[in-house]
């Protein structure tokens, strides 16, 4: 084999659709993609902001994480977003209400 026949794989960019290898990287990608989709600042869903667009992005990101990783508990999802487990439950219900067209109201089942 001649040196000119060797392909340097490190020079080739990975395909953008390849999934990250670790669960943490997958979760960070879900969060980043959701933030970009909602047009909010990257990282804002993990901060203490309560602006409506940020809350909507955070709710969807939590829902996406729970959908992709159903084995994760609400306390562990809460740690990712800097929230309490009950806040995660509320966010999941709110986003499910958005998806179903029936808004979730606290105190109403």
Contiguous low-pLDDT stretches (5 residues minimum) are 5-17
CATH fold name, please?
Chromosomal Replication Initiator Protein Dnaa, Chain: A
Distance between the termini: 70 Å
Q: Assign the structural class, choosing from mainly alpha, mainly beta, alpha/beta, alpha+beta, or little secondary structure.
A: mainly alpha
Tally of separate helices: 4
Helix content: 40-55%
What does it look like?
The chain has helices spanning 23-38, 52-68, 74-81, 85-100. The chain contains 4 helices and no strands. It has one domain (21-100): DnaA protein, C-terminal DNA-binding domain (Chromosomal Replication Initiator Protein Dnaa, Chain: A). 52% of the residues lie in helices and 0% in strands.
Keywords for this structure?
109 residues, mainly alpha, Chromosomal Replication Initiator Protein Dnaa, Chain: A, globular
């Amino acid at each position: 084999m001649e040196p000119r026949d060797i392909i340097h794989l490190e020079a080739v960019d990975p395909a953008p659709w390849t999934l990250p290898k670790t669960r943490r990287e997958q979760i960070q990608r879900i969060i980043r993609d959701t933030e970009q989709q909602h047009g909010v600042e990257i990282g804002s869903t993990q901060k203490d902001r309560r602006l409506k667009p940020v809350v909507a992005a955070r709710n969807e990101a939590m829902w996406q994480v729970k959908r992709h990783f159903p084995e994760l508990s609400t306390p562990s999802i809460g740690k990712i977003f800097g929230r309490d487990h009950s806040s995660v439950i509320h966010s999941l219900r709110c986003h499910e209400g958005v998806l179903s067209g029936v808004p979730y109201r606290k105190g109403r089942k």
